[in-house]
Amino acid sequence: QSALTQPASVSGSPGQSITIPCTGTNDDIGYNNYVSWYQQHPPKAPKLMIYDVNNRPSGVSSRFSGSKSGRTASLTISGLQAEDEADYYCIAFTSSTTWVFGGGTKLTVL
Amino acid sequence: QLQLQESGPGLVRPSATLSLTCTVSSGSITSSTSFWGWIRQPPGKGLEWIASIYYSGATYYNPSLRRRVSISVDRTKNQFSLKLSSVTAADTATYYCASPGAAADAFDVWGQGTLVTVSS
Q: For A65-79, what is each residue's pLDDT tens digit?
C-alpha cells in the first residue's frame, strides 16, 4: 500500500485559514469514511483532531474541521494561532482492513 | 480514562527480534468495541501503521512488514504486544501503542512512545 499524499509544508498568518489536502485512492480514502487527522508537536505523541472525516473529539477546538470529496480528504484550520504550528497527518482505513498514513504536513504560522 | 504505556528494551541488536508490550489501564483489553494497534515513527520522519488486533482476535499487518511482525493480546495481564523479527537500522523508531477511546473508529488514545534503536 502506498502512503497517502500530503504537501510537505503549508503556512499561514495568524487569523487566516489554511487547508491541508490528503489524497489517496478508491481503496482507502475513497473506500469509506474512516479518515482521521492528527496533530503532532514533536517529540510528543500525536493527538487526534478529526475522526470519521468530519467529527471532532471532545476538547478539540471548533477551528478544526474536516471534509472529503472522492479520493481527497481535507483538514481546514480557521483563525490560525501560533499554537497550531505543528505536523499534521491524515490516516485512512483501507479495503484490505489495514491503515495507511499520509506523509505528514508541517504547518508554519508566520 | 483509558491509558496506554509502552515498555521494552531501548536497544536491539541487528537481526534480533524487537519485543514491546503495551499495558492498558483504566480500561479493559477485552472491550468489545476496541481494537489495539502499533504505530512507529523513525527519527525525523512520518508515522507508519504497523499492526492492529481486534476484540475478535483478528490481526492485520502492514503489508511491508507482514513477514516479520506479530501482534498479540494477553487478557490476563491487560496487555498487548508487538514482535518484529530480523530488525535492521531501518527499524529504529519511536514505537507507539494506540487504541480507540471516545472515537470508536480512530486511534484516539496513544501511549507516550518508546524509542527503540537498532545497533550493534
A: 999 999 999 999 999
- Nearby residues of B44 by Cβ (< 8 Å), 6 or more positions away: none
User: Does the beta-carbon distance from A1 to B61 stay under 8 Å?
Assistant: no
**C-alpha distance across the termini of chain A, in Å:** 35
pLDDT tens digits for A7-59? 999 999 999 999 999 999 999 999 999 999 999 999 999 999 999 999 999 99
CA B35/CA A27 separation, integer angstroms: 21
Give the model's pLDDT for residue B49.
Answer: 98
Q: What are A79's three cell numbers?
A: 483563525
A98: which chain B residues are within 8 Å (Cβ-Cβ)?
A: 49, 52, 60-63
Query: CB A53: neighbour CB atoms within 10 A?
Result: 19
Q: Please name the helix (run of DSSP H) or strand (run of DSSP E) that holds residue A22, with its range, or none.
A: strand A18-23
Put simply, the answer to whether B110 touches A102 (Cβ < 8 Å) is no
Q: Using an 8 Å CB-CB cutoff, list residues of chain B that contact chain A.
A: 37, 39, 46-49, 52, 60-64, 94, 96, 101-103, 105-108, 110-113
Out of A43, A89, A97, the one facing B46 most closely (by C-beta) is A89
- Buried b / exposed e over A54-92, threshold 16 CB at 10 Å, is bbbbeebeeebbbebeebbbbbebeebeeebbbbbbbbb
